[in-house]
Inverse folding.
């Protein structure tokens, strides 16, 4: 009689354990809820009487120096900031800025490091700005505010017009 009782309860416990395992195995993975886009963010400013204020460009076209047919921004109006992609394969790149038929070229030298963001999101390149050069025909000056470029969408460079 005890053997039947133990087997009956053993089957019940086994059934409950299998139900729990089945239900927990059917959960959807959480997925990646973090941004994996890494862009160089530049905000526009002007200095008026020694005070820094946000600046709006009336129009702006931006393209890579080696790819003039690949426009990143095509005659866009009323911009106060832009996001630019950096090359994962190189440690430098340059962009041409055009506003009101005035051209300026800004060159970036940087390092990159492949970093695991998370298991769900995978790897991203984190860049570190080493040097920036410009022609200063359109720009007045620039300032590297945050040299590390990651997926946090923080301002990296201040451009003064």
């Amino acid at each position: 009689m005890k053997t039947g009782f133990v087997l009956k309860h053993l089957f019940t416990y086994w059934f409950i354990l299998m139900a729990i395992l089945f239900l927990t195995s059917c959960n959807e993975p959480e997925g990646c809820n973090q941004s994996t886009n890494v862009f160089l963010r530049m905000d526009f400013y002007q200095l008026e009487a020694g005070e820094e204020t946000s600046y709006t460009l009336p129009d702006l076209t931006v393209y890579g120096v080696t790819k003039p047919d690949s426009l990143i921004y095509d005659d866009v109006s009323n911009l106060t900031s832009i996001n630019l992609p950096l090359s994962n394969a190189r440690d430098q790149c340059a962009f041409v800025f055009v506003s009101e038929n005035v051209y300026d070229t800004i060159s970036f030298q940087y390092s990159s490091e492949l970093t695991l963001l998370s298991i769900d999101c995978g790897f991203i390149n984190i860049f570190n700005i080493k040097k920036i050069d410009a022609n200063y025909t359109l720009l007045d000056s620039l300032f590297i505010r945050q040299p590390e470029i990651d997926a946090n969408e923080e301002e990296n460079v201040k451009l003064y017009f």
Remarks:
- Helices lie at 2-25.
